[in-house]
Amino acid sequence: MSGNNVVTKRVTLLIASVSSFLTPFLSSSINIALPSIGAEFGIDVVYLSWLVTSYLLATAVFLVPFGRIADIYGKKRVFLCGTFTFTVGSLLAVFVTSAEVLLLTRVLQGLGSAMVFGTGVAILISVYPLQERGKALGINVAAVYLGLSIGPTVGGFLTHYWGWRSIFLATAALGVLVIILVLSKLKGEWIDAPGEKFDLPGSLMYGAMVLCMMFGFSNIPSALGFLLLGVGIGGLLFFIWWELRVESPVLEMRLFRHNLAFTFSNLAALINYSATFAVTFILSLYLQYIQGYGEVEAGLIMIFQPVVMFVLSPLAGRLSDRIEPRIVASIGMGFSALGLMMLISLSTDTPLVYLIACLVILGFGFGLFSSPNTNAVMSAVKKKYYGVASGIIGTMRLFGQMFSMSLVTLIFSFYIGGMQVNPENSSLFLQSIHIAFAIFAILCVFGIAASLARGKVHEQEEPE
């Protein structure tokens, strides 16, 4: 292996890891700051959930199209543009004067994240051979969990002493750092499908389908909600029909045909994120509204889960280079199910040590699942589809996250309505989170089955 290859791999891993740190750091920091944002703008818990969901929705709409654009025109170019857009969105959020404008900046951040998510892992996979991917992905995932780990603590500290806007300012500074690293250190470009056409009609159909499905689900049980959901499902079926017939599809549906490893690995990711993403959002509100902790204390408590993820994910990645990823990931899904079952019993007087034990178990679950599952997805496709595959698994992650938040929003709307959480309706809040955790635990059980059904990956040769 030449010295230049070694340097390229290390530089790429550094840049991918720093960018992977950014968005989870912001998300986990903002979760801690949500009560402060709600108090400043006088918004209820349902609107607060949309500050999370709007970002995810924007990312999901553009993720697959930008993954395809990156394959055609260059992954580095799209990655850099996305980092710049995300940084601008973060900087604008510092100066907002209303909840509506803050929502718009979250959409802009989501647009930038779509470009980053659709290219970062694809670039990383492009420079690492098959036998080293688990290790590289494990380190990259560890950066995600590092962001999740220090986000609540740093976010709580920043919110307490300088206000929630300082979180966005810190994120913008990190974005500038990534831009400097890319411009000064990342040499070359990765274009795996040069000259192919971009499927604009398919991209528009995809975005409309995602919007209809997610807005529809979040408005159930109203008639409009069911109508939008039905339109979204119909749009999905038409989108699949279109993509199977167009010459250069934005989403290569044929990747799912006769490829159990790819199909079930993506399904497992969808289920896992559906069952786990909203846990941080719920527990942040629970610790502050029900247990009475401040932002700093809540952040310190929430740190246990991502710290375990940070420590475990590189080990899980290396382990998935040696044994079948489905075994490691399925064990992780089992730990997640156990942790969620334990959270169903939360009450006003739940001991802190019990909650910490739940967070540690959930950390074990996700730490064992994520990098082996990503390894399985990316190792199951040809090189020319790395951008698309990265976009697909990112889409599964975001669909899962949006479903998780939409489900919680729906449950909160049913039990609490437009009220802010207070001592008078705390029992309704607890009932709603009990229902949410029960549904999430059931989802994880189905996720174990999907993870085990993917088949073997290591017996396959690396696609060319």
Secondary-structure map with pairings?
Layout: H1 3-41, H2 45-73, H3 75-93, H4 99-117, H5 120-127, H6 133-162, H7 165-185, H8 200-218, H9 223-243, H10 260-276, H11 278-290, H12 295-302, H13 304-322, H14 325-343, H15 352-378, H16 386-415, H17 426-452
Helix pairs in contact: 1-4, 1-5, 1-6, 1-7, 1-11, 2-3, 2-4, 2-8, 2-16, 3-4, 3-7, 5-16, 6-12, 6-13, 6-15, 8-9, 10-14, 10-15, 10-16, 10-17, 11-12, 11-17, 13-15, 14-15, 14-17, 16-17
H/E order of the elements?
HHHHHHHHHHHHHHHHH
Q: What is the beta-strand fraction? A: under 5%
Distance between the first and last residues' Cα:
20 Å
Main sheet specs: none
CATH top-level class of the largest domain: Mainly Alpha
Mean pLDDT: 82
What do we call the CATH homologous superfamily of the largest domain? MFS general substrate transporter like domains
Give the second-level CATH assignment, the architecture of the largest domain.
Up-down Bundle
Question: What is the gyration radius calculated from CA atoms?
Answer: 21 Å
Helix content: over 70%
The total domain count is 2
Low-confidence stretches: none
What is the helix tally?
Answer: 17
What structural class is derived from the secondary structure elements?
A: mainly alpha
**CATH fold-level topology of the largest domain:** Growth Hormone, Chain: A
Number of strands: 0
Overall 3D shape = globular
Key traits:
464 residues; mainly alpha; Growth Hormone, Chain: A; 2 domains; 17 helices; 0% strand
